[in-house]
C-alpha cells in the first residue's frame, strides 16, 4: 500500500519539525521519515539535556525542551511520522515522487525535503569479524520490540545511556549481563545507580572486558569470546545488544544524483531547491556560500523553502503572504 501526501520530509530533527509548521501554514500536508526511534534528531538523541543558547527569544533551552515545543507547535497540522526507518529509494512519478524506506513503507508526494542534519544516524558497530552474519538474528543495535527478549539470556555491551537504560529495563524479564571495558560509565548518574543496585541484588551481572569473537552454537544461541587484561573467557547468550553510540553517514542520499559539495547537498539561496526540481534541502545537510550550521539558519531556510513548495503543490493558486500575528485564517489553523 502506498500512502499519499504533499511533502515527505526526510529527517525529524528541529529543522524538519519547523518545516512542518511553515508548510502547514500553507495547507501543505507532510509525512516525516527518520531512522531514529524518536523525534528530535541530534537534539533528542545526542544531547537532550545539553543547553542551547542561540535559539531566538530563548536565553537557554535544552535539546529535549526544544524538541517538545516544536512538536507542540506542529500538532495542529497532524504530520505523520515514520520512525526507525531510512529512505532507501526515490522514484519520479506523474504525481511527484515515490519514497520507499528500508522496511518497505511507500509514500507518494509532490515534493521531497531533505532535512537530515549531517546525514543519517547509524550505529557504531563493534570490530568483531563476521558480526554482520548475526545481525537482526542474534545481534541488534536498537530495540524496536522488547518482547522478543523476554526470558532470554542477553549480553548488553557499552557504557553509555542506551546500554545502562536497557540493562535496567530488560532485567525485569530477562537474564541480563552488561559488559564494558571498565567499570566507569558515561550514562546518567541515576541510571548508573540503578544498574549497580541491580548488580548488588544479583539481578544482573557485570563483566569487565571487550568482545573479540562471535560464533554460532546449538539452539540458535551464540558464543561470545571476550578479553580482559589478556585473559580470555566465553559467554553463551541468546542475543547480543551492542550500544556503542551512533555516527553520521549521508547514506542512500548520496546515490540520488543531487549535486554535492564535500558530501553536502548544494542548494540555491532563494528557495533552497537542489539540482533536482521539487527536491529541497534545509538545515545542516545543505551547502551554499556563507552557510552557517545553526538551527536558526535551518528555520530561515524552512520558511523560504515552503514558499516554493507551495507552487508545486498548488500550481493553480496564488500564494498570498500572511502574518500569523494578524491573519485570522492562520490563527484558526493554529487553534488560537
In brief:
By secondary structure, the protein is an alpha/beta fold.
What do these coordinates show?
The chain has 336 residues and is of the alpha/beta class. The chain folds into 2 domains: 2-122 and 247-334, FAD/NAD(P)-binding domain, CATH 3.50.50; 125-244, 3-Layer(bba) Sandwich (FAD/NAD(P)-binding domain), CATH 3.50.50.60. It is 23% helix and 29% strand. It has 7 helices and 23 strands. The strands form 7 sheets. The protein has a 5-stranded parallel β-sheet with strand order 6-3-2-10-22, with helices on one face. Helix 1 links the parallel strand 2 (7-10) and strand 3 (30-33). Helix 1 (14-24) packs parallel to helix 3. The longest helix has 19 residues, at 295-313. It is elongated, with a radius of gyration of 23 Å. The two termini are 36 Å apart. The mean pLDDT is 92.
Topology readout:
Layout: E1 2-4, E2 7-10, H1 14-24, E3 30-33, H2 41-45, E4 51-52, E5 61-62, H3 63-74, E6 80-82, E7 87-92, E8 97-101, E9 106-109, E10 111-114, E11 120-123, E12 153-157, H4 161-170, E13 175-180, H5 189-200, E14 204-208, E15 210-216, E16 222-228, E17 231-237, E18 239-242, E19 246-249, E20 260-261, E21 264-266, E22 279-281, E23 286-287, H6 295-313, H7 328-334
Parallel strand pairs: 1-9, 2-3, 2-10, 3-6, 10-22, 12-13, 12-18, 13-14, 21-23
Antiparallel strand pairs: 4-5, 7-8, 8-9, 11-19, 15-16, 16-17, 20-21
Helix pairs in contact: 1-3, 1-6, 4-5
Features:
single chain, 336 residues, alpha/beta, FAD/NAD(P)-binding domain, 5-stranded parallel sheet, 7 helices, 23 strands, elongated
Amino acid at each position: 500500500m502506498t500512502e499519499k501526501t504533499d511533502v515527505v520530509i526526510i529527517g525529524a530533527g528541529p529543522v524538519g519539525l519547523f518545516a512542518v509548521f511553515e508548510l502547514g501554514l500553507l495547507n501543505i500536508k507532510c509525512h516525516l521519515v527518520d531512522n531514529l526511534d524518536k523525534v528530535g534528531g541530534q537534539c533528542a538523541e545526542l544531547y537532550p539535556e545539553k543547553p542551547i543558547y542561540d535559539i531566538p527569544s530563548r536565553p537557554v533551552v535544552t535539546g529535549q525542551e526544544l524538541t517538545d515545543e516544536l512538536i507542540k507547535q506542529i500538532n495542529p497540522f497532524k504530520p505523520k511520522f515514520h520512525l526507525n526507518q531510512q529512505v532507501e529509494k526515490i522514484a519520479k512519478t506523474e504525481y511527484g515522487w515515490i519514497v520507499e524506506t528500508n522496511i518497505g513503507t511507500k509514500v507518494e508526494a509532490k515534493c521531497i525535503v531533505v532535512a537530515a542534519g549531517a546525514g543519517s544516524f547509524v550505529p557504531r558497530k563493534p570490530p568483531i569479524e563476521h558480526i554482520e552474519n548475526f545481525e537482526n538474528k542474534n545481534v541488534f543495535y536498537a530495540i524496536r520490540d522488547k518482547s522478543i527478549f523476554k526470558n532470554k539470556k542477553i549480553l548488553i555491551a557499552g557504557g553509555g545511556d542506551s546500554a545502562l537504560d536497557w540493562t535496567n529495563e530488560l532485567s525485569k524479564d530477562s537474564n541480563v549481563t552488561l559488559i564494558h571495558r571498565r567499570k566507569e560509565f558515561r550514562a546518567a548518574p541515576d541510571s548508573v545507580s540503578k544498574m549497580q543496585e541491580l548488580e548488588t541484588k544479583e539481578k544482573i551481572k557485570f563483566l569487565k572486558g571487550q568482545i573479540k569473537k562471535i560464533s554460532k552454537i546449538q539452539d540458535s544461541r551464540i558464543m561470545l569470546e571476550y578479553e580482559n587484561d589478556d585473559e580470555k573467557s566465553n559467554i553463551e547468550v541468546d542475543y547480543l545488544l551492542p550500544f556503542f553510540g551512533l555516527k553520521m553517514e549521508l547514506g542512500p542520499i548520496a546515490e540520488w544524483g543531487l549535486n554535492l559539495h564535500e558530501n553536502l547537498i548544494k542548494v540555491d539561496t532563494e528557495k533552497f531547491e537542489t539540482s533536482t526540481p521539487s527536491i529541497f534541502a534545509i538545515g545542516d545537510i545543505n551547502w551554499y556560500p556563507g552557510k552557517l550550521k545553526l538551527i536558526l539558519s535551518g528555520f530561515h531556510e524552512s520558511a523560504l523553502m515552503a514558499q516554493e513548495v507551495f507552487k508545486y503543490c498548488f500550481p493553480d493558486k496564488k500564494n498570498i503572504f500572511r502574518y500569523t500575528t494578524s491573519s485570522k485564517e492562520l490563527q484558526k489553523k493554529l487553534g488560537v
